[in-house]
Write a sequence for this structure.
């Protein structure tokens, strides 16, 4: 998924909703005129149609303007940096260069939810999570990956066959991941490096990894934990 395509998709969703409200307004207007009723309520639907239409216009323009802005990132060192953007049930992990190599898809279920971690179009992991009173317990089907997360986001961990990765909340909008007492990643909301603000909104969740993992599975475990955290906020 490229950032340009993401903005086009969001714009398409907004346009669809705008047309939906416009259709309802037309139906209500026709019905009210036929029944000689007041058509004041129609203005509410027209207002929402206008708002979503403006949103669609904004995102379509954004999809066009973001291309030259992304190209300025090509010469910058952005390894280990990711920005989170949601589209309905999918959470994308974009690099500052405008490409999302990873994504998680959340499917609500009767007793919790299922999270699928994708790399491109390849499913890398499936996690099933259950909500308790003040926590979330999760594991994959073969029980090689499991973990825990408080619903207030203050503490959590994920266990793989090799390592334990611990999440702690260090500030109202900041979380850290540690492995063997080493800081391996940080998630911040409301703060972005200045060059990224021309491409992403200032409040976009920002992830920075501070070391390279020996195995890709360790980074994937971090993405799963960050995705669960994002879903609880």
């Amino acid at each position: 998924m490229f950032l340009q395509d993401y903005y086009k998709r969001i714009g398409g969703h907004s346009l669809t909703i705008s047309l939906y409200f416009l259709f309802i307004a037309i139906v209500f207007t026709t019905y009210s005129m036929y029944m000689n009723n007041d058509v004041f309520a129609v203005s509410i639907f027209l207002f929402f149609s206008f708002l979503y239409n403006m949103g669609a216009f904004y995102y379509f323009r954004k999809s066009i303007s973001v291309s030259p802005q992304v190209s300025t990132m090509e010469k910058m060192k952005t390894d280990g940096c990711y920005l989170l953007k949601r589209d309905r049930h999918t959470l994308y992990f974009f690099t500052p260069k405008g490409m999302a190599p990873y994504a998680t898809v959340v499917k609500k279920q009767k007793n919790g939810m299922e999270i699928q971690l994708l790399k491109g179009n390849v499913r890398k992991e499936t996690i099933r999570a259950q909500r308790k009173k003040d926590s979330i317990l999760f594991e994959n089907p073969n029980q090689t990956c499991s973990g825990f997360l408080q619903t207030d986001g203050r503490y959590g961990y994920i266990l793989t066959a090799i390592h334990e990765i611990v999440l702690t909340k260090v500030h109202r909008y900041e979380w850290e991941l540690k492995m063997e007492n080493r800081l391996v990643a940080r998630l911040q909301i409301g703060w972005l490096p200045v060059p990224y603000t021309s491409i992403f909104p200032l409040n976009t969740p920002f992830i920075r990894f501070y070391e390279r993992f020996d195995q890709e599975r360790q980074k994937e475990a971090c993405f799963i934990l960050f995705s669960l955290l994002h879903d609880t906020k």
About this structure: The chain has a mean pLDDT of 85. Helices lie at 3-35, 42-71, 216-232.
